[in-house]
Amino acid sequence: MKDLTFDTLLAVFEEVFGVGLFWALVAVAAVITLAFLWVVLRDRHVKAVPFLRAELLAPIGAVASIWFVFAITSSGMKDMGGPIDLIVLLSIGVAGGVGSTILVYVMQSLIAKSS
């Protein structure tokens, strides 16, 4: 694998997660992102207190995303082989933390507006 292209990454992710699960995860991420954009446009800004509350749950999202990937791929910490594995693990944790922060912020904003 000389070149790292989008098609190569797509094929790797589909192989790791399976085609159905991968595209389901992409769809869920897209829906959450669109909901976040809708909430920010509706409120005209990001509210500090709900965002801070959402950030406090980021570590839980990071750990959950790492656990999810380990469960799906039937691997664990014992399978970590080198620096790139640590970089990927940290990237998964960051993505899970950011994703959970956005999800919790959106949920708080939607619940607060409906009640």
Structural commentary:
This protein has 115 residues and is mostly helical. Helices cover 82% and strands 0% of the residues. It starts with 5 loop residues before the first helix and ends with a helix.
Defining key terms:
115 residues, 5 helices, mainly alpha, 82% helix
pLDDT < 50 runs, ≥5 residues: none
Overall SS class: mainly alpha
Extended strand count: 0
The N- to C-terminal Cα distance equals: 54 Å
Average pLDDT reading: 92
State the share of residues found in helices, binned by percent: over 70%
Number of separate structural domains: 1
Shape: globular
Indicate the radius of gyration in whole angstroms.
Answer: 17 Å
Largest sheet at a glance? Answer: none
- Supply the number of helical segments: 5
What's the SSE pattern?
HHHHH
Strand fraction: under 5%
Summarize the entry for a quick read.
By secondary structure, the protein is an all-alpha fold. Helix content is 82%, strand content 0%. The longest helix is centred in the last third of the chain and has 32 residues, at 83-114.
How do the helices and strands line up, and which of them pair or pack?
Elements: H1 6-17, H2 19-43, H3 48-56, H4 58-73, H5 83-114
Helix pairs in contact: 1-2, 2-5, 3-5, 4-5
